[in-house]
Prior knowledge:
22-stranded antiparallel beta barrel; mainly beta; 7 helices; 51 strands; Ferric Hydroxamate Uptake Protein, Chain A, domain 1
Amino acid sequence: MYKCLSVIVLGLVILFYPIxxxxxxxxxxxxxxxxxxxxxxxxxxxxQLPGSDNNTATSTxxxxxxxxxxxxxxxxxxxxxxxYETQEITVNLNANRKQDISLxxxxxxxxxxxxxxxxxNDKVKNTAMGLEKLSREDINKLPVIFGxxxxxxxxxxxxGVKNTGDGNGGFFVRGGAADQNLIILDEATVYNPDHLLGFxxxxxxxxxxxxxxxxxxxxAQYGGRLSSVMNVIMKxxxxxxxxxxxxxxxxxSRLSFExxxxxxxxxxxxxxRRTYVDLFLKASSDPEVNENKLYFYDLNLKANYTLxxxxxxxxxxxxxxxxxxxxxxxxxxxxxxxxxIRWNHQFSPKVFSNSSLIYSNYDYDIDLDMxxxxxxxxxxIKDWNLKEEIKVYPNNSHxxxxxxxxxxxxxxxxxxxxxxxxxxxxxxxxxxSAVYASDSWKATQKLHVEYGLRLSTFAALGGDQxxxxxxxxxEIVNTSYYDDxxxxxxxVNIEPRLAISYLLNDQSSWKAAYSRNSQYLxxxxxxxxxxxxxxxxxxxxxxxxxxxxxxxxxxxxxxRKNTFQLSVEAYYKKMQHQIDYKDGANVLSSEPIDPQxxxxxxxxxxxxILLRKNAGKWTGWLGYxxxxxxxxxxxxxxxxxxxxxxxxxxxxxxxxxxxxxxQWDISASFVYYTGHAVSFPSGKYDADGQVAFYYAExxxxxxxxxxxxxxxxxxxxxxxxxxxxxxxxxxxxxxGRENAYSISFRKDPLDPDKTQAVxxxxxxxxxxxxxxxxx
Length: 775
């Protein structure tokens, strides 16, 4: 399979040969752009000729590499990156030349006028739609929640990205379910991005370099999910000197080290984090309390080394585990392990490649020791991924991406072991492959086009696992087995991508985009928000791949000399083969899952508005989303359209950050959104003296509206020669709103003929404090 896909890549190179051959008319100036102090590569740096149009410009890729085509003779280039001093470099070209560049942090960082690190003109000049970027500096300015900076909580403050509620993991993007987001950490898939059931993110913000979110209109190199791609890149480490950084909070602490392996050639970064609520529990004299467990830990590691002028090696790894236990009666552990080895090679000044071997593992383990249930439940999903990506810079008008990857999935839906019986669920094997090509084309000074094509395949493989044939009543009529690693069912999907932007002037642009995506792995959840114990299943004879087609239109405009930035985007998304449980399905059953599922179509549409202030002492944004998400599945709600659980009509976020002076920063965030769709009982009946509730309509009701205010302030102390300290204070839910976590129904204890709705709320006021240091 991998050989076949490589042949296709070669065919794509031949297809683009006319563009590639045109590149011989000019010399190439290429190299890497780094931070002068740390030696880390910088992503998205602009390199262009001063005073030239936007077509004589390029930007660095995710590894800091750039390539620009220039004519012979003496030429001056301008290198600009927000938060760094702009440089103008004069070069004399009479042949291809390698020019590495080091940028120094801007002096503006030290002034009282606070300027964000986000490019104030990126929304206007970037062709991509639904694109959001956060640097480590951006995340650090946001309010502290539970004493931690959190990248996922930060993204949830942006239009089109919705949280799943307090105490739930995951997030929803443009009407998609929680499992329709591809989350990758240094190339590796993270299947559960949450700690402590969603109160913390898997990602230690202090270990991150940059986070990019594509809200549906992802480039052709990404696939396997319908709604979004969240690409997280870890820090590389300082290759100039050793540093340490850490923080001590009320419920968690962290510590990071970085430094050179060999100065200017390689570096490492390692960071650890742990909560210690369990240590406070042990201090209790009550055995029902001190035997409980509640903690998580995670560890990030990354290293890189320059092998030569054209080669660089990266190694990255992550390990995180959660543990929740109530004495000897109940315990659950879950976590992710990822690893990647990447080799960058520059074949020529115009051709850059990245070869990757990637590992990902997610598993959970539940222990039960109760009077009614005694046993253990385990589940696992493990991937091996081989990927090859080639970036070609034929001239200043085209940037071509070519790639191939193959992912070998091993999935165990669940193994149930008890005192009475042992039910061993066999491993499911599958192979997911893809080949893609795309081109970023600057057609004219004002018209930019990104077009691409992704061909994805998915083979459900034979082995120990059975494959079921169902009749029209969803009953199993035949069970089949296939030889090891032979294809029981193969799906092939063609996924075109197109994005167009037209610059009306330097301050505004129109955009349009279309994309098709396919998804072969699915998360079956009875909550819709993503919990550690939800079941991952792969496409098979009955479970078909999900498919989405999304069309987007937008306007981006800068106001008042780029002080303000306005973006408006509308989208419509049509989805096929959406999955839901049939009425009366037993979610925790050990029986085959196929007969319990129903399939149908979905649709999502909405309007997103973001007004952002980029400069001045006051910075922040106002975001608003108006949206609708519906599903139509035969066998549910009489075959009519009904609200998806993630449907919320209105979503508002207001974020403000004030830079008082060099010692103090203040920030606040306010969120409001319509309650999500939920199924409440429509009636009740008596069964042998017990009240049973009757549910007539799926997701026909709404939870109460949610709103919350968070406050945060940071006090920086006077820096010493090599030592800096700061205190961060936070207040989660500042005015004590009792937002509904769940609503249950029971007999009214005062009148058995009446039904009582009982609301459960999690948190009112949650203060936090953390001490941060760096040396």
